[in-house]
Amino acid sequence: MASRTRVAILISGRGSNMQALIEAARAADYPGEVVLVVSSRGDAPGLSVAREAGVATVVVDHVRFRRENRDREAYDAELHHELTKANIGFVCLAGFMRILSDGFVRKWEGRIVNIHPSLLPAFRGLKPQAQALAAGVKVSGCTVHYVVPELDAGPSIAQAEVPVLPDDTEATLSARILEAEHTLYPQALKTALSRL
Ligand code: GRF
Fold first, then answer.
1. Cα distances (angstroms) measured from residue 181 to each of 71, 85, 123, 193
2. Is the CB of 188 under 6 A from ligand 1?
3. What is the pTM of this model?
């Protein structure tokens, strides 16, 4: 079998998309293997989920960097170091709550993707589900896209639509979109890996 791409997942929190990717990549014919989870926070619940799944974890603690007055470039240099040390070939952002520097993004161009809970280019940035409700749209969803220096602006790989219902709250719409994310992300990663 052709060698599988070594994938790292970057998280900051719950890690439910991370879990969906780890599970999908267990299939023998999946083109990637998840070998590393990096968290920007030491208390991210996703870390224990990754450890239980037998995936190596590392914390690059953004609070420590701030305390030590080390800037974004220093943070991203450490992140890059961890990824290269583990011989990573592809990076998935999954609820990673940090803006990456242009330099870091350029180093990983074409090999770094993100999932965003809206149908991009609609509702970029924070709280896209609330933005969708405020705009009164009838359909929203999620997008997996390549990461480029401009936030949520890279080429789309795949999208999934979900209905917005009249009585939706931010929580109910987010939950419906999240369910779609868990199916979309593994499929989109497969597509992206097959293009390498
Ligand atoms: C997801 O809604 C994802 O689209 C967004 O952040 C959330 C992460 O959730 N980027 P989880 O940590 O994967 O559960």
1. 32, 29, 16, 18
2. no
3. 0.97
In whole angstroms, give the CA distance from residue 99 to residue 9: 15
For the chain, give the percent of residues with pLDDT over 70. 99
Phi, psi of 142 (to 5 degrees): -145, 160
What residue ranges define each of the domains in the chain, with the CATH number in brackets? 1-108 (3.40.50.170), 115-196 (3.40.50.170)
Residue 14 CA to chain centroid, in angstroms?
12
**Cβ–Cβ < 8 Å for 30, 2:** no
User: Is the C-beta atom of 173 inside 6 A of ligand 1?
Assistant: no
pLDDT digits (tens, 9 = 90+) for 164-194: 999 999 999 999 999 999 999 999 999 999 9
How many helices and strands in the chain, by DSSP H and E? 7, 7
Could you tell me the two tokens for 162? 């979900």
Residue 2 has pLDDT above 80, yes or no: no
